[in-house]
Design goal:
The complex is a heterodimer of chains A (114) and B (120). Chain A has no helices and eleven strands. Chain A has 114 residues and is mainly β. In chain A, a hairpin with a 6-residue loop joins strand 4 (31-37) and strand 5. The radius of gyration of chain A is 13 Å and the shape is globular. The relative contact order of chain A is 0.33. The mean pLDDT of chain A is 92. Helix content of chain B is 0%, strand content 50%. In chain B, the strands form three sheets. In chain B, strands 2, 5, 6, 10, 11 and 12 form a six-stranded mixed sheet that branches. A four-stranded antiparallel sheet of chain B has the order 3-9-8-7, with no helix packed on it. Classes of the chains: A mainly beta (114), B mainly beta (120). Chain A binds chain B through residues 30-31, 33, 40-45, 48, 50, 55-56, 89, 91, 93, 95-108, 110, and chain B through 4, 33, 35, 37, 42-47, 50, 91, 93, 98, 100, 103-105, 107-108, 110-113.
């Protein structure tokens, strides 16, 4: 079974440019999460989806960040415009109703804003 | 609000020795779950072990065991017989208790992590 797939793996952009990250969760997982992990820190939740509905986006900086999960499967996280402080690893994870023991994370996208 | 504290930024251990990584937590919830994840340099978060707040026995998964002391609000990870491949960042995390009604769809709150280095 394929795991959570994220792309790109690495991204370097200049500040003020837009950037987008893509996530394909495990088939059948209804819950999808985007986390941001700053250097030397633990991941922090940005947004959680239940199917196609965003049920927790309280930590998402809505002035520049947006996300969507069309048809309750793949998801895209966008930043426009990017700032230097957005440099981080963006992790996607998914879970299903029978996953008592946590989530499956993707390998993440490492974003560097210069 | 839930909070996880990991006070050891870095730890060294010799190969084949055991090591304990500390984790304390703070929550007002009666029901919660505690997790440990391993993050190698490749970046992926790898699930290691889970402990439910109502589980009476400490969780074990192969070389990993969780020393759960509920009254002290601690959930330390013990790795026995360390291997070079155990060198990685280790995160303790907590969430509200799993519920099939909610699909377990609750966020994880992570600590700041402990960098473990296994030496020959």
């Amino acid at each position: 079974e394929a795991g959570v797939v994220q792309s790109p793996r690495y991204k370097i952009i200049e500040k003020k440019q837009p950037v987008a990250f893509w996530c394909n969760p495990i088939s059948g997982h209804n819950t999808l999460y985007w986390y941001r992990q700053n250097l030397g820190q633990g991941p922090e939740l940005l947004i959680r989806y239940e199917n196609e509905e965003a049920v927790d986006d309280s930590q998402l900086p809505k002035d520049r960040f947006s996300a969507e999960r069309l048809k309750g499967v793949d998801s895209t996280l966008k930043i426009q415009p990017a700032e230097l402080g957005d440099s981080a690893v963006y992790l996607c994870a998914s879970s299903g109703r029978r996953d008592r023991y946590g989530y499956t994370f993707g390998s993440g996208t490492r974003l560097t804003v210069v | 609000a839930q909070k996880i504290t990991q006070t050891q930024p870095g730890m060294f251990v010799q190969e084949k020795e055991a090591v304990t990584l500390d984790c304390t937590y703070d929550t007002s919830d009666q029901s919660y779950g505690l997790f440990w994840y391993k993050q190698p340099s490749s970046g992926e978060m790898i699930f290691l072990i889970y402990q439910g707040s109502y589980d009476e026995q400490n969780a074990t998964e192969g070389r990993y065991s969780l020393n759960f002391q509920k009254a002290r609000k601690s959930a330390n990870l013990v790795i026995s017989a360390s291997q070079l491949g155990d060198s990685a960042m280790y995160f303790c995390a907590m969430r509200e208790v799993y519920s099939i009604l909610t699909g377990g769809g609750n966020k994880l709150t992570f600590g700041t992590g402990t960098q473990l280095k296994v030496e020959l």
